[in-house]
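Quick one, T. Sequence first:
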Amino acid sequence: MEKKLIIKKFILIIKGESPFLKYRKKVINMEDRAKSVMQIEKSIFKAATGYEYEESEIKANKKDNTTEVKKVKKHKQPDVRAAIAYLNLFCE
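C-alpha cells:
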C-alpha cells in the first residue's frame, strides 16, 4: 500500500502536479504581478512628474555623403492625466 502511495506522489511530482509545486507556481505568479505593478507605478509617477531623456538627431549631407549624429537632451513636461491616475490608483 505504501509503495503505491509513494509511486503516485512521485508521478505527481514528475508531472508538476504536486501540492508544493502548485503552491510555488502561485507564489511565482504573485511575485511577477507585484513586480509588474511596481513597474507600472514607477512609469505613471515618472509621467506625472516629468522627466528628461536623450534623443538622437541624424542629419545627412547629400553633397558630401556624410551623416552627423547629434544627441539632444529633451524634457517631457508633467502630464496632468498621469498625475490624476497616479493619485487615484496608488494614493489612499
